Amino acid sequence: MRISQSATLAGFRRSVFSLSPVLVLALLASFSAPASAAKKIIFDTDPGTDDALALMLALNSPELDVRAITVVPGNVTAAMGLENALRMVSLANRCDIPVARGAQHPLFQKLITAEFWHGKNGLADIELPASKCKVDSRFGPDVIIQLVHASPHEIILLPVGPLTNIALAVEKDPSIVPLVKEVILMGGSISGGNVNAAAEANIYNDPEAAQIVFQAGWPLTMVGLEVGDQALFTHKYLDQLGQTHGQINDFIYSVLKFLLNLSGTFGAPGSPMYDPSAVAVAVDSTLVKVQEMHVDVETRGEFTRGETVGNRRGQVERNVLHGDRYVIEGVDKITPNARVCVDVDADRFLQLFVSRIRGK
Ligand code: BDR
Ligand code: CA
């Protein structure tokens, strides 16, 4: 029997009108937000325990469409990071996402890994099954360049490790800069470091790359220690994750248990959610408060190499030498190059995280 299009529409209207108004609104909302509206991201990572949390948050957030994963050395070697990324996309049944190997070392310094915080295998010593997914044969920075050109003004770069791959992509093809929608990175701090008094780990692990990325001229959001250190994953949230099960749920539960034990040995009440915080900002930017400022990366200081130096006043004095003394001839406004996250609604972020992972 042939059903005409108008008859089908009439039937649709009839069935819609017989529904409750709330249900109709929900239906209409779902029609107006097609999956293609999800934000396209390239996730650049050094997996890494909190990288694992961040990746699983990204893969389980309908607001995000992970187009590629590029691996950078940092927490672990490039080879170990690649293996970890492949095992995780396999666990999540997402072999459709290209996983590409990137740089093998920072631009100008020796790689220093951090198995102490991430376990001997980088994944909290949890042995995930061998990956069903295969590595993409392309070089990570080339994947970034190709995807940005394929979807101009649509791609968000989401680096949660040292910025080596992103810097290499910009250096190879600066024409990607105006075509990238936004960079949302986990790294930096304007209130002291976690590696030493001045520097945050991702920036410390490749300061020259970070300076290239901060000065590139694209919209950039810095999700640094000001966010992660406030968002502590405590036993309260761990218990919530322990009540539900699923392959991803159970993996993430074990990673967080490892991190909470480790933090506990230092007397901390919870584990800072560094990398997931950048993903959360991509999902919902209202979770954080931002302040626009100009950020430079210190590359030479004996005690400050790797520090992100943010101009919080938005201006500098114009000191001009008059004979043997300076005269302030004016005050120059400084153009911001970053939106620095300075505050977070920690509980809302942690609840979002738990709700996305529960039962997965
Ligand atoms: C950052 O350093 C790494 O150890 C974490 O994965 C995170 O990206 C926090 O400073
Ligand atoms: Ca990381």
Q: Mind explaining what this structure looks like?
A:
The protein is an alpha/beta fold and 360 residues long. The protein has a single domain (39-295, 336-357), classed as Inosine-uridine Nucleoside N-ribohydrolase, Chain A (Alpha-Beta Complex). 39% of the residues lie in helices and 22% in strands. The chain is built from 14 helices and 14 strands. It has helices spanning 5-17, 21-32, 49-59, 78-91, 115-118, 140-150, 164-172, 201-204, 207-215, 225-228, 235-242, 247-265, 274-283, 346-357, and strands at 39-45, 64-71, 99-101, 136-139, 155-159, 182-186, 220-223, 232-233, 271-272, 288-297, 308-311, 315-322, 325-333, 338-344. The strands form three sheets. Strands 4-3-2-1-5-6-7-14-10-11 form a ten-stranded mixed beta sheet, sandwiched between helices. A two-stranded antiparallel sheet has the order 8-9. It is globular and about 75 Å long. The protein starts with a helix and ends with a helix. Calcium ion is lined by residues 46, 48, 50-51, 75, 160-161, 275.
